[in-house]
Amino acid sequence: MEIIRSQKKTSDDEAASNLSLYRRAPDLEVRLDDFELYAIDRLRGFYAVLRGISDGLSRGKRPDEMEKLVNELWKTSMRHPDATQLINKDLISHFVLRLVYCRTEELRKWFLSMETTLFRYRFRLENPESQRMLMTEFQLPYKALSNAEYESVKDKLVQVSRSIGQSSNCVINVCVGIYWRILVSAMLSTLNSRVVDPDAIVDAVVDTIFFKVPFEEVPELVANRRVFLLKGNAYVAMNQVASIVVSHFRSNLSKALVLTNRKWTSTIKEQEKDRLTPIVEALGSSYLGPDYSQPTEFTNISLKDIDQLANSSFPLCMRHLFNKLRDDHHLKHGGRMQLGLFLKGVGLKLEDALAFWRAEFSQKIGSERFDKEYAYAVRHNYGKEGKRTDYTPYSCQKIISVNPSVGDHHGCPYRHFSEENLRAALAKMGVAGHAMDDVMDKVKNRHYQVACTMTFEAVHAASCDAGINHPNQYFAQSRKLLESKVVISESRSKARPDLMFFNPHPASPNMKPNVSNLPCYTNLI
Amino acid sequence: MTMEENIDERDDMQIDAHSLGNQQLNQFSFDYLKVYYGKLFPYADIFRWMSYGNEGKHPACDESFFSRREFSFTLENDVYLRFQSFKGATDLENSIKEKCPHKIDIGPVYNVDPSRRHAYAQGGNNVFMPVERELIFDIDITEYDDVRYCCSGSDICLDCWPLMAVAIKVMDTVLRDDFGFNHILWVYSGRRGVHCWVCDGRARRLSNEQRSSIADYFHVYKGGENSLKKASLTGPVLHPVLGRAYKDVLIEYFEKKLMQKQRLFSFEERYQKILDIIPDKSVASEIHEKWQARRSSTSEEGRWDQLKSILQSGKHKALRRCVEEIVFTYTYPRLDMEVSKHMNHLLKAPFCVHPKTGRVCVPIDPNQCEDFDPTSVPTLSMLIEELNAGGLQMDTKNGELERTSLAQPIRFFRSSFLQPLMKSCKEEMESAYNAKIQQSGKSSFNW
């Protein structure tokens, strides 16, 4: 039983961490209730961890803010009355969610990203001793640089650490580096035997030890230019080691999810159809709220209303694209995708969509070229061409994370516009005075979705407690408000699909399996 | 995969005038294209390249390697054939000659023969997936439309070519020195940019995440039509990779070439865009007034020197970074990031003929890229004329090629790219094989 390493060792070793690498599923009996409840705590309860992380990321929180957030979320959601059960709760909830999230590419991607983020911040919170133990567990065979080699690249290493803002003390440390390096290489050679208690030493010299690692192993550090690269090797400082461990964690989990998916489709799904399958499917069905690929009650629009609707109910990102399209009769690829899928989600039928795009594009390039070169992509978005996937509209998180280029108008205006342009755009929507200042304030703190929510509230003169997570949600809520102002609607008490996400315990009783409280063995994962 | 299809389409989605004359030219060129594929296209070289040593007799050769590579053809009337695959050089040659594609794209090597992917996909286990792919880059001149004034859209000329030369120089150095790659092929895309193929084994086996990290390592440019600042540099000093690019390439190209060729300081609307980059509005308007009032220093150099001395005077500490930001904005490479990030993105094959310009996608020597002239790249009609000039004499295939201006690019392709690549593929194969023999020797010994 390797995974429960920490269980085994905690008795004789207080320093060992509770952070699991989740290499094997635990061999435990789990009550069916716990199976579901633990997963909900991890996934999307009111204080749930993964949902909180997703939210934090899309608000563009800084690493230090994320660290705090993850720590708090973990403590509140993953607690257990019986302290000895904490580790099991962690393991069980993780492995249950693997089942839930292995089933499509999209789900795997989301889960991988959230679990990796969670692991990253939990790893950072560990003490150096247990960090190094985890490294050994991953069998990372890194050697510290030799003195001669260190000398030859010293200037560059200093330049890199200055470029990422670790200025003065690092330079000093590099000067005294040689002395420490001798000490530390001795220490590292005895890494496993733990003859010395190395914590104190590590704290003092973390800045001066460098590992030479193939660049492939530290993609995150490469992407952010936080390492020096020479001939295919990255020079990683001791305090950046987290990144290496995290990328191993990520790639292991990514492979495991693909394997779990195979097992799920080939055996588990059928075997467990009366017991686990319904739970897994219920957990997965409302994972991030609806995906808005299907129009709902308030979203079914026809071509003749589209201008009026754009004006009253489109979020700024879509209004902007819509207006640019009307003005320029053209949008680049990213813009076509973002607006096109949004329009599909609000219920524009394929025929109408083709007519809509043709009407604009043909003014610039003629309808013949439109039919030849662009119509395919429109049908493609509706799942009528190519792989025939019914693509889902982009969420805020996705829109915020893109990098628009020259000539591009897609992306999130709150993030990608200059201040002047954003102010002008907001003014056009009728946002002014205090509301404008509040919105700009949120933008400065990189709370883009909050800024959008406040814009919604200012424009509609109504509150939006749920917050905006998706352009199509913005639209649906806007329609709901505006239509109820015209017709007094009885639909208030009706459960709305776009609100499911915000219900802390959405799994309804009828989704529960017939045979409850039987033990189940998660090791079949 | 289909996402990539979409993105790839964008290549031809640029707007340009379609005249009747153009259509007629295409009619003609279709016949020319047949001749080109019949007599000049280097099938054997493409096959050897795409086989990476697996076409030989060595016991470690993977015979199915080439046949698992996706090719895709764009035919006349924009019929698009994806997931084509071929058993060998002859098969590839016959199919191209028969279908006469306007464009040939090269995709990844899959785990199974892509033309038979449906047979494998029936288990529903997602077993069809890419396993190897060159690391590729695509740089389009259209991405630079806000910093060039000589042409716009798909056009390219000798005044904006330096932007491409900068990109090649900067990236080639980084790929070799930082990432340690050796087998790098630069190709003119036939119209509005350059492609780069990094073919080292290590590059071909990168995961999508690793590919993204390399693209991001290059990425400085923060574009979008609605933000003013295009290149944002943070931190007290530049990272060595950016510092070296600035010192060795960017500043020189900006001061010696682009400033004059694009006349960046001669017109108010042009220099205003440069002044917009300065975050301190009072400094920007001070300079603006100077240039408006005095007619004396109107030369590009004069104004640039003046701007530099004000920004670097030390009076405005926060502005020291500004000079670098201006130079980066106007010169630093702008990649089409999506192309590089995913294994299954398609890229046009070298030695294709661009259907709009008729120009052949010839390799570019990165050491001479500033002298490369996109306007004198061999065109289809030029090549056919050269062929015809030889009269009707029966000729060996090689003799015909030697007569044309395609001979030099193909020679360059072989000597500076293909041969060194083949050599290291053989070595790699040999050492992998030996390691395997040793391994199995050991384990059988244990028995």
TrEMBL record, chain A:
Binding residues annotated for [4Fe-4S] cluster, in chain numbering: 317, 396, 412, 452
Statement: the UniProt record of this protein carries the keyword Metal-binding: yes
Cofactor binding mode and count: Binds 1 [4Fe-4S] cluster.
UniProt keyword annotations, A-Z: 4Fe-4S, DNA replication, DNA-binding, Iron, Iron-sulfur, Metal-binding, Primosome
Record keyword Transmembrane present: no
Cofactor(s) annotated in UniProt: [4Fe-4S] cluster
Location of the DNA primase large subunit C-terminal domain: 307-475
InterPro entries assigned: DNA_primase_C, DNA_primase_lsu_euk, DNA_primase_lsu_euk/arc
Molecular function per GO: 4 iron, 4 sulfur cluster binding; DNA binding; metal ion binding
GO biological process, one term: DNA replication, synthesis of primer
A GO-annotated cellular component: alpha DNA polymerase:primase complex
Classification via PANTHER family: DNA PRIMASE LARGE SUBUNIT
Family statement: Belongs to the eukaryotic-type primase large subunit family.
Function recorded in the entry: DNA primase is the polymerase that synthesizes small RNA primers for the Okazaki fragments made during discontinuous DNA replication.
Protein name stated in the entry: DNA primase large subunit
From TrEMBL, chain B:
Origin superkingdom: Eukaryota
Essential cofactor(s): Mg(2+); Mn(2+)
GO molecular-function term, one example from the UniProt record: DNA-directed RNA polymerase activity
EC number: 2.7.7.-
CC annotations in GO: alpha DNA polymerase:primase complex
Keyword line: DNA replication, DNA-directed RNA polymerase, Metal-binding, Nucleotidyltransferase, Primosome, Transcription, Transferase, Zinc
BP GO terms, sorted: DNA replication, synthesis of primer
Record bears the keyword Metal-binding: yes
InterPro entries: DNA_primase_S, DNA_primase_ssu_euk/arc
Family, per entry: Belongs to the eukaryotic-type primase small subunit family.
PANTHER family reported in the protein's UniProt record: DNA PRIMASE SMALL SUBUNIT
Name listed for the protein in its UniProt record: DNA primase
Source organism per UniProt: Platanthera zijinensis
